[in-house]
Structure formats: structure tokens, C-alpha cells
Design brief:
With 267 residues, this protein is mostly helical. Helices cover 54% and strands 8% of the residues. Helix 5 links the parallel strand 4 and strand 5.
Length: 267
């Protein structure tokens, strides 16, 4: 999207490293990031890592063409391949791709994605979240929702850009208006994701399930003042970030936050 592209362009030009869960499509978001990184590197006459691309098992078991494409860009993009979590590794051939075609396989995928997201959030100084699909994902909950919950548990500064709809928009409405969206209920998720009810039953038996009532309670308890303080923005600025549909305004507020962080670190 134009939003993510604009944010990436501004952050790369300010020597940030972008850390995210990988998109392996050669014409996808990763390709755009690489194009921006090459333009910047050419301008600065220096090649160094600008992008950290995390891949959960078994997603990194891709074909030879993608492997060659990744190798071609290794000077600018560091790819981190995550192993299968030990609690689901027993009896699994880890060198073979596992299709997410059964409830049991979907559960293994969910554990792999959760482990990867824990690492991603742990490696970041800030998380920027916008959009996010509420259905059609692989995992125990929508991916951006899981990253947000991990960031909150880790006490990380979190930018919630709710003006671009998606699951982040729903989360912002809950925080601002105490309006619980259907997308944050188990009933809606079961009704809109094939195989989801079987997945959450397996996850519940292993105590790794998604508790939507707890998630809603946690999000409802958040206040914008505390979220704003974490990002060194005023509460009014943070509320603007949560509702603004304007790319330039959101980018400006994110850059202002990072500038405030740098100035406080230098003080």
C-alpha cells in the first residue's frame, strides 16, 4: 500500500532497519523495500543491511528461484529463518514443506507464526501497525493483532494507525469508543475462517489458544495517554494517529515521535 511504502521510504532514508515478517513475492512488498534500499545505498555509496526479513517454518522451504533471488539481495536484506517450535516438532520432517491442509497442520503453522512474531517484536524498538486482514490468515489470530498483543506484553512503543481500516482500525475503535467489533469475537472468527474451530480446539488443549475475551479486556483497559507517552507524542497527537486517513499526517507524527526519542537520548 501507499502508506507502508511511504513509511518505509522515510525510515530507510533515516538509517532505520525495517524488521518484518517476510513477503516472498518477487513483485511484492519485499521487492519495493529492496528497490528503495538500493536507491538509498547508491546515493550514499555504501551497501549495508537495511531490511530484516523473518520467515517462519515452513515458509522458508521455498523453491530454487526464490532462494536465488534472496541470495542476490543478501547485502541489503538479512533473512532470518525460524525453526519449528520444539513443542510441535516431534515426528515432523523439518526439511519438507508442510501444507496447512488439516487442523493439526494448521495448529503447527500457528505455533510457528507465533514464535516468529515473538522474535520480530523482541528485535524491534518500535512497532508500526496499520490495516491487517481479519480473516483468511494462517495462525491462531489475525497476524497484526498477535503482534500488537505481543508488543503490549513487551511494553514496546506502538503506533496504531487506525484510519486505514482493517483489524487495526477495529482495535482503535475499541480503545477510543469502547465499541467491541465483531472481528474481535471468537464467534465471528469461527464463522469467517474455514477450519478455525478445529484449530482453536487443538490450541486450547495445548494452552496456546486465542482468548478473545482476554484480548478485548486488555485492549479495553488501554488508555491513549499511556500509549502516547510510550511514543513521546502528546495524547492529542496519538489520537490523531489512531483515526487519520491521511498518509502524510501519519508519517509526520511517526517521524516526530522518533525525533523526540533521539533528542531525549542525546539530552
Amino acid at each position: 500500500t501507499k502508506l507502508s511504502q511511504s513509511i518505509a521510504r522515510h525510515l530507510l532514508s533515516r538509517s532505520a532497519t525495517l524488521v518484518y515478517g517476510g513477503d516472498l513475492r518477487k513483485d511484492g512488498f519485499t521487492s519495493f523495500l529492496l528497490d528503495e534500499a538500493y536507491v538509498l545505498s547508491d546515493r550514499l555509496k555504501a551497501l549495508d543491511i537495511k531490511i530484516e526479513n523473518h520467515l517462519a517454518w515452513p515458509i522458508h522451504l521455498e523453491g530454487a528461484k526464490i532462494k536465488a533471488w534472496r541470495a542476490q539481495h543478501h547485502k541489503l536484506m538479512k533473512t532470518i529463518e525460524h525453526e519449528i517450535p520444539q513443542d510441535v516438532a516431534n515426528g515432523i520432517a523439518t526439511d519438507l514443506f508442510l501444507e496447512p491442509s488439516t487442523p493439526e497442520n494448521l495448529y503447527i503453522w500457528s505455533r510457528c507464526l507465533s514464535q516468529m512474531r515473538q522474535h520480530i517484536v523482541g528485535d524491534c524498538d518500535f512497532r508500526i501497525c496499520a490495516g491487517g486482514k481479519a480473516s483468511g490468515y494462517k495462525g491462531k489470530m489475525p497476524g497484526v493483532l498477535e503482534e500488537i498483543m505481543i508488543a503490549l506484553e513487551s511494553d514496546k512503543p506502538l503506533f496504531l494507525l487506525g484510519g486505514f481500516d482493517g483489524i487495526v482500525g477495529d482495535i482503535c475503535k475499541l480503545i477510543l469508543n469502547n465499541d467491541v467489533p465483531q472481528t474481535l469475537t471468537e464467534d465471528w472468527q469461527v464463522a469467517n475462517n474455514a477450519g478455525y474451530s478445529e484449530l482453536i480446539k487443538i490450541a486450547a488443549k495445548n494452552d496456546t489458544h486465542c482468548d478473545y475475551s482476554r484480548i478485548v479486556s486488555t485492549l479495553r483497559s488501554l488508555n491513549t495517554k499511556a500509549l502516547a507517552e510510550k511514543t513521546k507524542l502528546s495524547e492529542e497527537e496519538y489520537k490523531t494517529l489512531m483515526v487519520s486517513p491521511y498518509i502524510e499526517e501519519c508519517v509526520h507524527l511517526i517521524l516526530k515521535s522518533l525525533k523526540n526519542y533521539c533528542e531525549s537520548a542525546d539530552a
